[in-house]
Amino acid sequence: MTMLQRPPQPLPPNQHGGFLKQPNLTSSVDNQEYLTECAELIGEHKIEIDEEKILDLLQIKYRWPEPSLEVINHCGMVSNDFFDVKGYLIYDRWKRLYDLGFTSLLNNVLDLTSQLRDLNNKLLAIKGSETNANFYLSKGTETRRPSFDPHNHDYHVVVKPIYGSCTWVVNGKKHEAVEDSVLVIPAFSEHSVISNKEPRLSLTINLTG
Length: 209
Fold this sequence. Notes:
Layout: H1 31-44, H2 51-57, E1 69-72, E2 78-79, H3 91-99, E3 104-106, H4 114-127, E4 132-138, E5 156-163, E6 166-170, E7 173-177, E8 183-185, E9 191-195, E10 200-207
Antiparallel strand pairs: 1-2, 1-3, 3-4, 4-10, 5-8, 5-10, 6-7, 6-9
Helix pairs in contact: 1-4
């Protein structure tokens, strides 16, 4: 464990663009203990999804209303020019972007499989609330942008690679995220993925402090 039918939309600063300033607050909660407990649980929890399985799940048309699936374009903005007029996914249009090497963001995925639902229930017992988690999916690329520019969040993030690997930079230090590991990114830490040369599926779990 390592502690669109419309133009692409720029990301608001509190998501994946820009930086947030850490407030000067005190808390009676031991965030380190909380993060460690969550990270250990996430790291030990088995999630078996390969490329064939995730692509099959993406063909459940009505599970993916706009904007539950987004593509990070080469300018670092999210694009969703692959939904029909009713707001449902046109799989083949999205798949072409995937095959070209662009990274996709699948939002709020802890309902997709029984193993993901089980993880959500385990985290509920620690957090006392539902958990938001996203998949980052890529066929691998050496020419396309692997993810967003460096940014931070006002919540903690735990990254769990499901298959494949990529290189992260967190507060200026490189980390290789590989299967059977977790990467813990504390709130307000600057982070980004800088290399994604092979197919990968990563689960990023957002934890409020």
